[in-house]
Amino acid sequence: MVSLFRTDATIKKDVESEIQYDPSIQHEETIAVAVKDGIVTLSGVTKSYMDSYYAEKAAKRVSGVKAVANDIQVKLSTERLDPEIAEEAVKSLKRELPSSADKIKIVVKSGWLTLEGHVEWNFQKEWAERAVRSIAGVKGVTNTITVQPRVNPGDVKKKIEDALVRSAQVDAQRVQVEVDGSKITLKGTVRTWAERQEAERSAWSAPGVSSVDNQIRILP
């Protein structure tokens, strides 16, 4: 029988390999990886925010990773003025989210972009961040957009549980769903970070959900 326990050294090697072979990441600069008790810390310097973003995503895909601390610094080869970044971000939001862009406010300071405001669905919050994070000159994105749904369906718990059962990536029997109004709490255990994220995605996909507290633990 093969042990499911993964050492920090093994996780570190796999994270480095995952980052190295991700075609979305430019490898002109070195990204350092440290692991302690399954918690991964990424450090180093990249020339774009997208490299930092994709490195973090790559680390989260690796089995045995419990959490990721992204300490990568973004140092652009060419700086852009904050008003230029803000103007392009506004245009991108209007293009990608024409029905809700007017509910979102953009703040840019020293290349760091913050999204504020409210939307009705979580996918709109995620799409807003997706629309701006690849803009040239952006060093980071903080998404503080809140979800304020119009409806609060009484069967939201069943909808989430049904979604978990349908998902091939989640063992639904190991996940518990608690509902308090439009706020969802997920508990239980899963085998991987990816499975934990998929369970959270399923919860956010239900209509009427305004927040998800993911307390699921990773037990490989």
From TrEMBL:
Residues 7-76, 81-149, 152-220 form the BON domain. The keyword Hydrolase does not apply. Keywords: Aminotransferase, Plasmid, Signal, Transferase. The keyword Cell membrane does not apply. It comes from the Bacteria. One of its GO terms (molecular function) is transaminase activity. This is Ornithine aminotransferase. It comes from Sphingomonas sanxanigenens DSM 19645 = NX02.
